Task: structure prediction
Amino acid sequence: MIPPQKQMTGMLGHPVAENPIDIMFDAVYSHYGLNWQFWKSDVPSVELLRPAVAGLAPLGYRGVGITVPYKVEVIPLLDEVDADVKAIGAANYLTIENGRLIGHNNDGKGVVKAIQKQRSLKGEHVVMLGAGGAGRAMAVEIAWAGAAQLTLVTRREAQGREVAERITAVSAVPATWQAWSSPVRVPPGTTLLMNATHLGCAPDLEPVPIDWSSVEPGCLAVDVITNPRITPFLQTAREHGCGVVDGVEMLVQLAMQLFTLWTGIAPEEKVFQRAVAAALGE
Result:
């Protein structure tokens, strides 16, 4: 008997080599007895994004994650986007229904769930480093979750101001832009410091240039990087007396949501946690 065709899911981005998402998803598919597979595809330039996206439906994909640097650039290539994408201005995953590509965003929902496992976001004074596709989604969701104030620290002023204005427009939470410096001085009263840049990712492990004398020890440090789990940023934060939330925890939270949307199965969190730990060799 010929086995049924595999159901295809995947991710588009650049670079993607160090992301453990494919190994994690394949392990969870196997756990639940699903003939599904997750393909990680490196798309090296924005010029190649259009043909890559155009090929998803003909190739039979059921859903695809979108990662850096294409979360904003992918939007014009889609047939439809949901309300979250319209509010945030970025998409981090697609569902493919009857050949139509529909954009969604749960980047921020994943980070909010990960942070809320440690403490509430209500009243938090948040500083976010970076405001790309993932950063803007996380900033909006953090504002919606009750943060009192956000400061966006970016190299590009236009990008930082645009995202700050969007946050305030959709949430009424005050958001401001701060110029990137080396090192970055954190404003007094900051209670949550988040790295939403690529700094710290394997294999380069670049340090985030923070003036740690400006960070209060009770501040919670959050990193979006998934590999390694404890980045140089989080390691230094721990040594400074800060609590930490790692990017792997965020990945698990958002991946569980994608798994349910794509397969209709509500997975146990421990299954995803075991799968990602194995993928990272922990």
